[in-house]
Write a structure and sequence with these properties.
Layout: E1 11-15, H1 18-30, E2 34-39, H2 47-54, E3 58-61, E4 75-78, H3 87-95, E5 99-100, H4 102-109, E6 114-118, H5 123-136, E7 141-145, H6 151-157, E8 163-167, H7 170-174, E9 183-186, H8 194-197, H9 200-212, E10 219-223, H10 227-235, E11 239-244, E12 253-255, E13 259-262, E14 265-269, H11 278-293, H12 298-305, E15 316-321, E16 324-328, H13 335-343, E17 349-353, E18 372-377, H14 382-391, E19 396-399, H15 403-410, E20 419-422, H16 435-449
Parallel strand pairs: 1-2, 1-4, 2-3, 4-5, 6-8, 6-9, 7-8, 9-10, 10-11, 11-12, 16-20, 17-18, 17-20, 18-19
Antiparallel strand pairs: 12-13, 13-14, 15-16
Length: 450
């Protein structure tokens, strides 16, 4: 960790505990800041609040007291999930108090170069791919951010011999000031989180902060196939490294049906890649480009490409059983993600779909339902999805009580060579506490089948 003195005796308010707030509080306290924590959840059962209080840190739980900023705070570090419409945040902005998220602290203390990965989809897969490439290649990577440990906790222990592979969201990027990754990756841009950002433009601008402070000494890897990302790349001062699925490019990384190319030259054959889907090929190109820029051995990159079958709950290969292959895509909580999963397979699909009803249409999936031979529906949207499937010409439609029941009902609908795909196109909260819990039940049900 860098020797940072700027926080010594600084009055800092950490807004919201959770994982990142707790980590930020511990770090700032160790750096000599005078920290106060304000969390909206009740005091009772809040283990983090109790632990911090034992260290002599002031903790205020149960809401945001009016006038809390009158205590003279010089900095606010907020949980990324707290919106900018929050009264304390609004007040802070009006008073000119900087409002950061925890990744800004990470950038200020880290001795290790940071590789920051963002995007509407694919950032977790890209982060994981790159981490494994660097790990096998002996580059001593550390993984952090949305995918696991809070980044400032990782940065405290990192040295200049490490690389921090950091998954970052638009929520986190909004709270940055000097955040400057050595390599920034922007996988793609689609409308998302508009309830938080308000407009598509605001969401895109938040994402663009991943490259905003980069210089010519840094690298910006971006999706050249998206016009909007080309616009943001044109504004970046970093050295640009585009990736494209539309044939050979003379610069950056690209792919055709046979090969992946680096600066227009064949680099690796696509036939060795295990991870299915065009959307995952984008993730592969982005991760491979970063690994090459970091002088990762080609053998390490090939090792990962030929063995990696997916991040848990993200088009994750689960098992092959009597010629049927099961994939867990529980992370597909919207139609965009399910569309990508359906497009990944040429084989007949028995699709398990449905969940929390947010009033959305499934119409966006219509052009991707051609390979779906049967549907098993579940959750609040079961009836709505059944109607949609019927309109697509699908005649085999069965309702299931939950994911476990869905697996039992899906298997008899299959033939050798078929795919059973859990890709709900809906959030899980009508039946499960998280998409992870939903996906875990799918995996358990498939294992029981065998």
């Amino acid at each position: 960790m860098k020797n940072v003195n700027q926080f010594r005796e600084m009055k800092v308010l950490v807004l919201g505990l959770a994982k990142s707030g707790y980590a930020a509080t511990k770090l700032l306290h160790s750096l000599g800041a005078e920290v106060t924590v304000n969390d909206a959840s009740p005091e009772e059962g809040n283990k983090e609040a109790s632990a911090l209080r034992l260290e002599g840190i002031q903790v205020i739980c149960g809401g945001h007291p009016k006038g809390i900023l009158d205590e003279g705070f010089e900095l606010i570090v907020k949980n990324p999930g707290i919106p900018y419409s929050n009264s304390v945040v609004v007040d802070a902005v009006q008073k000119g108090i900087p409002v950061w998220t925890e990744i800004e602290l990470t950038s200020r203390i880290s001795e290790a170069p940071i590789i920051a990965i963002t995007g509407s989809n694919g950032k977790t897969t890209t982060t994981t791919l790159l981490y494994h490439m660097l790990n096998i290649g002996g580059k001593h990577p550390l993984i952090a951010g949305n995918i696991g440990t809070a980044s400032c906790t990782v940065a405290e222990k990192a040295t200049e011999d490490n690389f921090i592979v950091l998954e970052v969201s638009s929520f986190q990027l909004m709270g940055t000031e000097a955040f400057r990754p050595k390599i920034a990756i922007w996988t793609n841009l689609y409308d998302a989180h508009l309830d938080y950002h308000g407009t598509s433009e605001a969401y895109a601008v938040a994402k663009s902060r991943v490259t905003e402070k980069q210089t010519q000494e840094d690298y910006f890897i971006y999706n050249e196939d998206q016009a909007e990302l080309r616009k943001f790349a044109a504004r970046s001062l970093a050295t640009k490294v585009p990736f494209s699925l539309k044939g050979i490019r003379s610069a950056g990384i690209s792919a055709d049906d046979e090969q992946i190319y680096w600066d227009g030259e064949p680099y690796v054959k696509r036939s060795i890649i295990k991870l299915p889907g065009q959307h995952n090929l984008e993730n592969i190109l982005a991760a491979t480009a970063a690994a090459i820029l970091l002088n990762c051995d080609k053998a390490a990159i090939e090792n990962v490409l030929s063995s990696f079958t997916g991040v848990r709950h993200r088009t994750q290969f689960v098992k092959e059983l009597k010629g049927r292959t099961f994939y867990n895509d529980s992370k597909a909580t919207n139609t965009l993600a399910t569309k990508s999963a359906l497009a990944a397979f040429d084989m007949p699909i028995v699709l398990i779909a449905g969940g929390l009803d947010r009033g959305h249409s499934f119409e966006e999936l219509r052009l991707f339902m051609n390979n779906v031979k049967a549907v098993v529906t579940l959750g609040e949207t079961a009836g709505k999805f059944a109607e949609f499937a019927t309109s697509c010409g699908i005649t085999k439609i069965i309702h299931a009580d939950d994911v476990n029941d869905a697996v039992l009902k899906a298997y008899p609908l299959t033939d050798v060579g078929d795919i059973v795909l859990l890709s709900p196109a809906c959030a899980s909260w009508d039946q499960y506490p998280s998409f992870e819990a939903r996906g875990d039940q799918f995996i358990e049900a498939v294992i029981k089948l065998s």
